[in-house]
Amino acid sequence: MGFIYAITIAGARYWAQDLGLRMNWWKWLLIAIWYCVVSLAFAGGFTLIGEREPKAGGRFLAFMGTIAVAFGVCLWFVVF
Amino acid sequence: MVSRKRLWTALLILAIAFFGSNSAIAQDAYRILLKVGSPLTAILGIIGIAVAGYLSGKSVDSYTGWERFTHGAGMFFNRKPFRRENPTYGITGETRRINFEEILPSRLQLIRSLIQPPDGSPPKWVPEMGVEKLPEPFKTFFTENPKKYQATLKLFPQIAKQHANWKNFEVQLAIADAWSNAVAGSFWDHDGKMKFQQLFPPEPTGPPEEWDYRGIRRKTPMKFKSPGHASELIKKVTHTFGATLVGITKLNPNWCYQGMLRGVGQVQYEKPAHWGYAIVFATPHEWDQLYSAPAYSTSYDAYSRERMIAGRLEIFIHELGYPARCHVPPAFYDVVTPPIAIDAGLGEVGRNGLLITPELGPNARLACVTTNIPMEVDKPIDIGVARFCSKCKICAVKCPSGAISPKPEPGIVRGYKRWEINVESCFHTWATVATSHPKGCRICLAVCPYTRKNNWMHMAARIVAPRDRTGITASILQWMQKTFFAYPGARDFLPPPAGRNATYHEPPDWLQTDLWFDVEKTW
């Protein structure tokens, strides 16, 4: 997982450069938080599904997913 | 020896590093590779974490108390920041001991023995004879509590009705009933009767001053290096006997039942001098069967485990030269175990009247051993159970009998602050659900938000919520619990026609008769 995240982070820097984004530390921090929210949504949702709580898992995923989308849209305007 | 796969990986990394720093073309390739790889690995990371989450949720190794190691450190909650000088049940007035006749099973047992004497002789009492003809202390108790008299008598026809109704479920619940009877083997024989001479641990046949000293072979007890050493050893040994949680406290005399002493009979007594300390321990029910309460579930598995632990610990203490008496399920107690567990810092009392521990929630069955080994005692804890329960109320809403108080604040019971439980209504549900006989219902255990596995998700909630004194975390968790989780309605837990034999979780495969036996599925 560490290797995967290393590639993600290394590649994100090039994406930002090629897209001409003016990035600074707090923008990167916000992106990292957003990625954590997305990860949490999937981790939590699937943990509950694994616990034989499929409805709770689905609802958690939908709830956190909605937050992640809303957060992502806001982030889009902040970053771009 | 370096494997070929590792060698190629190392070479690839070196090549990327070399070309990445030395060649313009390679630098472009490196850039493109990372740019393409970045979104792919981002997605892969999320898939990986979802799979890890699913496996963590599914793992039976995250069922506290049933994990691979008897005393694996991962299952324990750090109580140190939550230790308090006084227990959270709070003393609000004049306190008193619980009288023997206040305990419903004692009442039922006595009245049954009067209506149907065990020796087969004619009834010594029948309901038509009225309260006046009942022996003391029941005559006084029922005269002062006429509602309890009516409610207690109503239970007998209800038990008969449940017994008659069992034929409708005996195929569907064949494995569940067989499992329940099997795990009750330490206190029941195959015929479903208690044979006191076969019990382990054995029932006292003498007063504490004799019985608790039986089997001591040393002239003088082994002297511990310090009370701290004594506590540590006793806890370690109790864990090896199978206990999930262990606590030690000085025994409050108010936790001794009044009016009955095992080995002596009906008697008013004071706490024996050698019951200075109580070692109290908890084990959970097997989790999957608990979640499929009430029909597929039983209380007897944890009862049996507790009995074995207590019996072994009693012998262990005798071997060291000290007196000991165990107090064990299902009904062999001289002391009330939940408040002892609270004093020993295992948890707090919940709305459902049960001990709620950070690790097991209310899925914690208790037993204890009283002794006079000088030990270092544990302090009570405050993890905010009372505050949580005052808002939660899931157990009260989902209880089919309405036995659990829905009031926002606890009441006063015998001078102690706690929510009231209508035990007669509670037992009425025991005698209504689809089981072969009244063996509990455990719905309030299964639906409690504290009854959760030991995985990252619930562990995070356990760590954060009690530390957040604003209560915001607890409120969010409660909202999620009530919004996301699908609970059956309270009446749905009952058998048809009132309900549909609903369970909180689907029963595990090993309790589903139709998966293993050649039977026609009609349910």
Layout of SSEs?
The complex is a heterodimer of chains A (80) and B (523).
Chain A: H1 2-18, H2 25-50, H3 54-79
Chain B: H1 4-22, H2 24-58, H3 104-115, H4 138-144, H5 146-165, H6 174-183, H7 208-211, H8 227-240, E1 245-250, E2 277-283, H9 287-291, H10 300-319, E3 324-327, H11 337-343, E4 348-349, E5 355-356, E6 365-371, H12 385-392, H13 394-398, E7 411-413, E8 416-418, H14 423-430, H15 443-446, H16 456-464, H17 472-484
Structure commentary:
The complex is a heterodimer of chains A (80) and B (523). Chain A has 80 residues and is an all-alpha fold. Chain A has one domain. In chain A, 86% of the residues lie in helices and 0% in strands. Chain A has helices at residues 2-18, 25-50, 54-79. In chain A, α2 (25-50) runs antiparallel to α3 (54-79). Chain A is elongated, with a radius of gyration of 15 Å. The longest helix of chain B has 35 residues, at 24-58. The mean pLDDT of chain B is 91. Chain B is globular, with a radius of gyration of 27 Å. Chain B has 17 helices and eight strands. In chain B, the strands form three sheets. Chain B has a four-stranded antiparallel β-sheet with strand order 1-2-6-3, with helices on both faces. Chain B has two domains: 4-57; 72-515, no CATH class. In chain B, 38% of the residues lie in helices and 7% in strands. Chain B is α+β, with helices and mostly antiparallel strands and 523 residues long. In chain B, α1 packs across α2 (24-58), α4 packs across α5 (146-165) and α5 (146-165) runs parallel beside α14 (423-430). The relative contact order of chain B is 0.13.
